[in-house]
Amino acid sequence: MANDPYTYPGTDTLRNRLGITDDALLTKAEQRFTAVRGAEAARLPFAPTADGYRALHKHLFQDLYDWAGQDRTVNIAKGGSSFAHVPYIGRELDKLFTDVGAKNAFRGLSRDEFFDRLGNHINEINAIHPFREGNGRTMRHHATQLARDAGHPIRIALIDKTAWMEASRHGFISGDHRGMAAVLAAAAIRRDLAPEARIGPAGIAMLPQRAPPEGQRYRVTLTKARDELERYLPAARQQAADRLRGLIKDGAPTATIANARTELAYVRHAKGPVYQSHLLTYLGIRQVDAVITQQQTPLERVREIGAALGVQINAQQPTQLQRAVRALERPVLPPGHAPGQQRLAELFLKNTSEKNNADPRLAPAQAIVDAAIKAAHDRGENARMVGTVGQSTRQLVAERIRSGGTLDPDLARATDASKAPTSPGQDRTR
Q1: Which of 18, 116, 218, 427 has the fewest beta carbons closer than 10 A?
Q2: How much is the pTM?
């Protein structure tokens, strides 16, 4: 682009904080830095607003560009078609996200309806293309957050890049969003028996609707409720899955099976009972009234505690809930993650390498990080790149700890960005 203030004179290389003037090297640096920042972004809340979207872009590209998170100031085009002209970017972005807010960020929709709405939303953002660089990556991270909060999670690594580019091109030219919806739906995380959560205010999972619990109610502190959940939730998840399989096998009524699916999704959901107990504590609630007996199974006990939490959550003002959700510092636990694993991962990230090596539980994890750093040194990487590789590997290892996965020494190779660099002439609006 002639006279582009974003590039170094006489080149197509974007001005950057690293002072890199070679386009291929800049592409390689982008991949490394945004991989680290993307792993962080997956655990951070970004409001589904225009400013929240800008904040996501800034987080991803803060290490590279002074203008990260800012609307572009030049017009750009692709394939002979122009994206939104500069004077209209802010207005169109505000209008688009106002519509998202009016639709409760697509929460409470069936799977097919959700991905149809999400595909159209991403197509509209693509037509605006608010940033000079990094639009595609920001859209993919934004899509995964909306999907997670709406109870239809997708895995960003499963998004087919070739299909994404074709769907973006087709949608931009024709306005048809169905291709993008299909690409995003194909990246959805498939759960056993495909349970779908019933989503309440602020993206919180709720139990199936039912009559109020019967029996003697007892006042339970939220601290006690969390202890009960940590003790019984793993078994409750297994019982909920077994119950659903049994109902399907026995040909139970459709409504009964649907409720069992919702209950299974609730006990697995990132914003399920454990998260809700922390949320209520933040809001100043100290106790709930629950129907508890010694004869209850783990699933029944979790169900009754969850019902008590739901009563308190439904009594809060929506604005207060939204504020509390944004303010919570504790990361949301994804499905399959246990509180103990979460705490161990947090300790691993908090500790120095010396403390991790001294802890028998964390020494194998630290060994993987040390191996990745040594490999980067051996490749002749500079200090900044070695630090990036180390941090990226730490995040990958921490995620493996959270999910209870095997700490495979080959995990260190996951951060080796030794793939062939993108050629200088390749399109940079990805």
Answers
A1: 427
A2: 0.47
